[in-house]
Design goal:
Blueprint: H1 6-19, H2 26-39, H3 43-56, H4 61-73
Length: about 70
């Protein structure tokens, strides 16, 4: 992600979610995926990812950040 290899970064984050959807870092992975989607200007996908994050991990710090980002995307 830091090297702007967005497709590789998204694939890595998605792989974590596929292998271990309940992993402690899963909410962070979803937030990172939304970051990549926003960088790629795919705001519809970013919004969907953020909404799913809030729904799936409502008590996580990442969900709080997602709520703030959703407010800005509207």
């Amino acid at each position: 992600y830091a090297n702007k290899s967005y497709k590789d970064a998204m694939a890595n984050f998605q792989q974590l979610l596929n292998v271990a959807p309940g992993h402690a870092r899963a909410p962070e992975a979803m937030l990172a995926i939304s970051n990549v989607q926003m960088e790629l200007k795919d705001l519809k996908a970013a919004r969907k990812t953020l909404e799913e994050l809030v729904k799936t991990f409502p008590d996580s710090e990442a969900a709080q950040a997602a709520k703030e980002r959703l407010t800005k995307l509207k």
